[in-house]
């Protein structure tokens, strides 16, 4: 069972929450973003100038599809303001123990019936080739209600304590898969939990926590907004398709509701691992997970 933190009013990451994150490898916070904040985020998908112009689609085994948007820097649209908001940045700095920077952001858009699975993996399984330490974190924001039926995240509780495990290419898919024999050995020790979430709920996810999501075979959409951060002291030692250290221009939480930029995505530097063949060399596994 997932232990959840609930709050009303201004959020502060407490020592108790940090202890839970360090014990379990993740922390679920209910209502981290209220409905007005999530409604404002949705507006960047509206109209012909929306962020979907920068999306790419992959075909997964079995013919299922996954739609994604990925970029380096937060920018000044609503998604960027969320990524630079005090409550997000300060929570991550508390969990990682120091200054952070925006490593990359993405939307994982699982549509009804057609969306494929994300295989078992650790985020650091993708990132370790360019970053020396697992001082990295993912903030996973539920834009829709996420359930077992429409592909909520599945996590192995406490699996971050086993360290990074080997990952291998996934064959027909561009994803990489964590060592499945090792995962099976871990399951009796690290309980499998389903992170069922409402709109605006957030998971703070340790980069070594094993997780996956099943195909979305339901009639319900499951879209998620994801912001990934690296500790400033862990700046990538090999330049690649994600960002090197740039100080975060932090904004007050009130800016999320006040932002009216829904179409100017300048500065985000969108990345598409399928767009150019010459780009593939910068994507060790195309980084199309989530």
Automatic annotation (TrEMBL):
SUPFAM superfamilies: Clavaminate synthase-like
Reported cofactor(s): Fe cation
InterPro entries hit by this protein: Phytyl_CoA_dOase-like
Protein name: Phytanoyl-CoA dioxygenase family protein
Upper classification of the organism: Eukaryota, Metazoa, Spiralia, Lophotrochozoa, Mollusca
């Amino acid at each position: 069972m997932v232990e959840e933190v609930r709050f009303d009013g201004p959020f502060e990451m407490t020592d108790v929450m940090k202890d839970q994150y360090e014990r379990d490898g993740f922390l679920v916070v209910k209502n981290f973003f209220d409905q007005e904040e999530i409604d404002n985020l949705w507006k960047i998908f509206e109209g012909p100038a929306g962020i979907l112009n920068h999306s790419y689609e992959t075909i997964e085994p079995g013919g299922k599809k996954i739609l994604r948007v990925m970029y380096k820097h937060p920018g000044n649209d609503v998604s960027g303001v969320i990524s630079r908001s005090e409550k997000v940045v300060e929570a991550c700095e508390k969990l990682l123990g120091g200054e952070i920077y925006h490593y990359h952001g993405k939307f994982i858009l699982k549509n009804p019936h057609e969306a494929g699975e994300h295989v078992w993996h650790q985020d650091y399984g993708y990132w370790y080739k360019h970053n020396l330490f697992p001082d990295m974190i993912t903030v996973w924001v539920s834009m829709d209600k996420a359930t077992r039926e429409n592909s909520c995240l599945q996590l192995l509780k406490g699996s971050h304590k086993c360290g990074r495990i080997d990952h291998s290419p996934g064959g027909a898919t561009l994803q990489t898969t964590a060592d499945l024999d090792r995962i099976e050995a871990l399951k009796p020790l690290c309980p499998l939990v389903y992170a069922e979430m409402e709109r605006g709920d957030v998971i703070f996810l340790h980069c070594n926590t094993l997780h996956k999501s099943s195909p979305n075979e339901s009639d319900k959409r499951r879209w998620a907004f994801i912001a990934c951060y690296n500790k400033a002291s862990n700046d990538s030692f090999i330049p690649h398709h994600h960002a090197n250290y740039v100080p975060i221009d932090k904004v007050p939480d009130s800016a999320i509701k006040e932002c009216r930029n829904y179409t100017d995505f300048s500065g985000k530097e969108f990345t598409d691992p399928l767009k150019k063949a010459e780009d593939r060399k910068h994507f060790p596994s195309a980084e199309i997970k989530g």
